[in-house]
Amino acid sequence: MTTSSVSRDAERADLLAALAEARAALTTSVRDLTDEQAGQTPTVSALCLGGLVKHVTAVEEGWLNFATEGPSAMSFDLPHGVTWDDLMAGTAREFPQWMTDRENEFRMLPGETVTGILQAYEQVAARSEKIILTVPDLSASHPLPEAPWNEPGGAWSVRRVLTHVIAETSQHAGHADILRETLDGRKAT
What we know:
The structure is a single chain. The protein is mainly alpha-helical. The protein contains seven helices and two strands; from the N terminus they run ααααααββα. The radius of gyration is 18 Å and the shape is flat. 22% of the residues are buried.
């Protein structure tokens, strides 16, 4: 094994460890909750614990798809005749499906269970870990999809995607900790 491959493996192990730590902080927040509790919004925020896990699952899956497939994995197409200005102003005559899907990520929908959302997250995590361990180069990059929140002409490497997923997961784990403590007094972390 060369020094370069040892260094490469160490970096991947460090990234995976950081992501696993953030995931554990998030999933601990829903431990021992009923499905009803996981769907409650105990603060002035519209966030619920089950929705946070669903959202982070979708974020991780979407960004790892981007890391392997490029911008075609993240489509932000608008309905015919709708502009970004219309959409941002709330005056669009029609909203894209991806926007509805994103809103639904943040809530527990009828029939969803804590067990089901955690299983989905575990499946995404296992796939992500496999990708991280096997992608040939963490520096490989893809252009970001066109959207007002992305830097025009920007590109992200696999490494940048991973740091984003770690940050997003950590941020929402903090939100989850507050929600859990508000819900029943238990601290998740």
